[in-house]
Design a protein that fits this description.
The complex is a heterodimer of chains A (257) and B (257). Chain A has 257 residues and is α/β, with parallel strands linked by helices. Helices cover 39% and strands 23% of the residues of chain A. In chain A, helix 2 packs across helix 3, helix 3 crosses helix 4 and helix 6 runs antiparallel to helix 8. Classes of the chains: A alpha/beta (257), B mainly alpha (257).
Amino acid sequence: MRLLELRQVSVSFGPYVAVEGVSLGLAPGEFVSLVGPTGCGKSTLLNVAAGLLAPSEGEVLLNGKPLRGLNPVAGYLFQQDAILPWKTALDNVALSLVFRGVPWREARERAQAWLEKVGLGRFPRHYPHQLSGGMRKRVGLAQVLIANPRLLLMDEPFSALDVQTRQLMENELLRLWQEDRKTVLFVTHDLEEAIALADRVVVMSAGPRSRVIGEFPIPLPRPRDVAEIRLTPEFLRLHRKIWELLRGEVMRAHAGA
Amino acid sequence: MRGLRLRIWQAGLLLFLLLWWEWASRTGRLDPFFFSKPSDIAGRIWRWLSTGEIYPHLYITTLEMVLAFFFGTLLGVVLGLWLALAPSVAAVLDPYIKALNAIPRVVLAPIFTLWFGLGVLSKVALGITLVFFVAFFNTYQGVKEVSPVILQNARLLGARSGHLLAHVYLPAAASWIFSSLRTSIGFAVIGAVVGEYLGSAAGLGYVIAQAEGVFDTTGVFAGMVVLMVFVLVLDALVGQVEKRLVRWHPKAEGIQG
């Protein structure tokens, strides 16, 4: 049984068709990366999965039932900073629980434990502008994970970070994911990141009217270290194979832009 | 050291201007009848303070100002929130608000005196018409400018409309409101003093109008100085409050309305 399934989903904005006829299923506990050139509608699909956007055609099934409104089991990590700038790191994380009716006192206690889990135990009273980009992402990650969503949707969450911080965050994500194996849909335009993290890489064509043009299982062993795994022959073989397909789309996207 | 030098220059300039005024007035280069002189003005203020005759007037002006400030801000925030969250209502009321804001508020003073009498109430009403629009436009703008990502994130974390109001809309607007507190307080003072000047039996505006009526320039200048110091003190107080309340803001030191 699939946790989430998109069936022949098309999304258009007026006359512009962003994605067309996309079918994609996520098994429970599966980590799927969605790659494609810029402007191929990856984020659009993520918004459909989150229930922020209703598909123009096709349907979204959650546990086999049609999804109406916001996806109740989804946590969403945005590309931009989405934490509240007027709340401290601790209160930002606690807020997810407060929204679910947990009293502030208890919410703060559990939030502190989560801050420690993402390595920010010493910064509960810091406001977002006092934290670095990587630290803000950690707060965002803790904020989403504390609510224990069964489905984690991530929209190029680490693309604004520098390379070192980025690899650190990717390893951190894998470590946290390893604990309870949530279902993850990870959108990125970086093929290396996609392969290093995922069980399965889904490639989309250049927009408009982007479709799924390829799916590749990634049988690399876990637990993985994202920096080391990039150097293994198996990784390079997979990278070459997927890049062959993706390169043409990237060229098309550039020609169109 | 730079700060100290700056203060010395500032104080020096003030001293020079006062000495020049005094000298010009004593040697007949300025007519004391029209321009009075600093020593007379200082003497008058001292007399007011030592006999205590100015305190009831200061009390009345403060009362009018605080009431106008409080109720003007309250009304502005409530209506600003409402219109920002109900775009159709905003669309209907838009021309009315523009029209009302276009009225020069001073011309309302006579009609308020007619409606509410010569006492405190008519000045408070005048102050409210000034303060209201500052609070209203800032709240409206603040709510409208909440980042859509932050809003979506809060909704996906499970926030209901009450939560959104308390944790997203109000704090977002609050930084706008607080950053305009100084403008608001200035307007509240203008409302109080102009109202008193045009018709009243007490208050600093009344004191100045009385002095002017008998060609007592010393009295007019003394009233102006007291008013000026009064506003500077309030401004400093508001500055302190502002610093506390927008503590989360990266530019908390240099906000202006």
